Amino acid sequence: MNRRDCLLRLTATLGAPLGAGLSGCGGGSDDTNTTPPSPPTLVGIVVSPDAATIPVGTTQTFSAVGRYSDGSSTALDKGVTWSSSNTTIATVVAGTGVATAAAVGDVDIIATVGTVTGKARLSVKAPYLQVAAGDAHGVALKADGTLWAWGENRFGQLGDGSLIDRLTPVLIGTAKNWTQVAAGESHTLAIRSDGTLWAWGSNLNGQLGDGTQNDRAVPVKIGTSTNWVAVAAGARHSLGIQKDGTLWAWGRNFEGQLGDGKDADLLVPTKIGTDKDWQLVVAGAYHTIARKTSGRLFVWGSNKFGQLGLDSGGEPVRTPTQLETTTWMAVAAGEQHTLAIRSDGVLFSWGDNASGQLGTPGGSRIFPAAVGESVDWIAVAAGARHSLALQKDGSLWAWGDNSDGQLGDGTLALQRLAPVRIGDAKDWLRIRAGRAATYALRTDGTLWAWGYNHKGQLGLGDLTTRRQPQRIG
User: Which fold has domain 128-472?
Assistant: First the structure.
């Protein structure tokens, strides 16, 4: 026992019999050698998140927590070295744990302290989030908020400042806050994260909405509103929905496609009616379909082939008119036909059927008719004379005109009169149709295209038509 401990014991036993409590106290030297306990050792590292999925070009920050031999855990802010198992797929800053995705694939992100390691799985997917299809141009939104465009550029519809067709995607400006995009015949509309609306391309009928009829080769801001949440583009007319549920339209109006009850073109966005429950709007070449929060569809514009789904004697309908009382979950408008999925998953079509684009027997239809017997449809797209749809299992189906391979079935068949399955893949996520070209996104973020390619609208670097899906980039 050391001297200090003896003195403490002596103090504690004052008043006790002489010598009580003093056993073990020596004459001035320690007779016990006490070794302090060893500090706990690091036995494991837990990396968070343990699994993450990000698109190419974006980052993910990882953190590490150390587990010690005494059962304790502590965040490891210093002394950790980070590394990647495959720097081709993703790199990581050694001192911070910030990983940057470089290519599609899976990689381990590893944290190391001395000889102890921990790891997490990082899956990198392709960068595409949305795609829009014009007559002969495509526009895509990437996960980093950038916009890319390709194909015909005669009117500046690509927005890169030139009038040169592009065979592969080119970056549009420097903005990284785009959230939505739509493409018309030769014009493009897009919304930024601040709610502003932008437009570029052909403007003969005021479809850009900037108050002029001048074409624009770069994005121009439309008005001062910061409340835009959705846009749609027809051949030469445009529509948008604002946060308060109001519907707006501008551009060509010869067939009543703007819905204001008139036939004069509008050069700036103009509110249609006073309703504030509009939720979705799509545009065909010369007709418009919109859904309210109730799930009801309203139609207006050209009805020459019955594409509005009601009997107007072939005459245009110039104000929004309710289509039956059914509730719908998806709708697409082609050049002169319409597709819609009812809330129970049944697919309907109506309008022009010259190339089998309705997927039903017979000629054009004035009223909606069911396509097949499936109740598993979840998404639709309509081109000039071809149609596409997705089922719940992620499979892709197509029908109608196939003269330019726009169905993607790999055959030389000129048309399909009923839906045919396209390949075996079950990971299709989004579909869009141009005049005779088709675009689709898969769940891994890859972008695919097929069909007519005379202006480079497939984005594959050449002018060769494709009859099967080909990956862009």
Answer: Methylamine Dehydrogenase; Chain H (2.130.10)
